[in-house]
Amino acid sequence: MRSLPVVFGLLQLSIRPSLAFFRTAPDLSPFSYPYTALAGSVNVTGAQVTPNQPVNSHWAVYYISATNGHDYFICGQGLETQDNGILSHQYRVLITDITDKSSYGTAMTDPDATLSTDTFNFQSKGFKTYATTPDLFSTMVSISSVPNATFSLVSRPKGPNLYHAGSGSYFWGDDRTFEHAAPELYITGNLTYKGQTVDVIPEKSTGWYDRQYGPGYVSAGWNLFMFYLQNGVKGCVWHTHPVNGGPVLRMATVLFPDGHHEIYTVADDIHPAIPFTSKLTNATYYRHHQVHIIGLDTTLNFDLPVLGGEMTATEQPIPQFTLFEGYSDITGFFQGVPVKGFGVTEQSNPY
Fold it and tell me: DSSP secondary structure string, 15-76?
């Protein structure tokens, strides 16, 4: 395990990798890889429709280079939860302009929202996401009509899928969860931010679609880190807080360019540094984290160039409805070799 001084990552805060978010996967559908069409208990098409789950999430982030020369980080999530037979629906949307360092996000509960029980189709008053192909996966649409965070994006997964924990199932908080992802998306569409509508440059943009469902939930909070490295490696790190004295999760799922997965333990200390406080929720977030992946000789610094990414219900800004999704510049070492990249720092209940 390589340990880096915290300052190594902090010096990178003003440095962008590029106006183009590099794409490294081949121009192939995930269904072209036999092991990604069916891995463990995960059938990708079947997993798009899972009624009657305590947690049912369709979540995506997009790294957009636009025709106005700006880079944007976008998040959209449709969420259904069930408690004692009562369904509830929420959506979260976010647009961060990485170039001018501004951000707007929100989270809303919609009593009239729906999640279909026979196809992938989430509909709410401010956000919708759905599939347009019979396999419910090869082409997906996300549309937000929320003022200050308006977008219409079409995504097509490319390259191999990522199955968290290698099998797509693991213990998360208080029970088992099921989770897999399309970590590289070919994206078309447009966004409107600060009154300006701009088009996506597909060749310079990418995204990550994440599907999660099941009974498990980390009510105590978590840190999540997703990364794209210039060597073509992608991955996800889970670092959770204990629920009622139960086990914590310290797991890195690493996806290599050929599609194979490797699973590693993550060090307990993720070195949070440079705190800042939300004016809306009074939550404290951290601008810098350093993640050590044990056994892989890998240390990655995640640094936020923009102090924005909070999505909360403005009329009820409490932890239950709050999630921080921050675009991150990444520096560090992968298998002992210097590397750069970009990704996500997600913070839930860090206060």
Answer: --S-SS----S-S--GGGSHHHHEETTEETTGGG---S-SEEEEEEEEEEEBTTS-EEEEEE
What's residue 315's pLDDT?
80
Cα-based distances in Å from 228 to 22, 107, 168, 225, 340: 9, 26, 19, 10, 9
| Interval 136-174: pLDDT, tens | 999 999 999 999 999 999 999 999 999 999 989 999 999
What letter represents residue 246's amino acid?
Answer: G
Distances in Å between the Cα of 303 and the Cα atoms of 7, 8, 127, 237, 285 are 11, 10, 29, 15, 12
Measure the CA–CA gap between 253 and 264, rounded to whole angstroms.
Answer: 7
Question: Mean pLDDT over residues 214-224, rounded?
Answer: 96
- Burial class from Cβ neighbours inside 10 Å (0-12, 13-18, 19+) for residue 131 reads buried
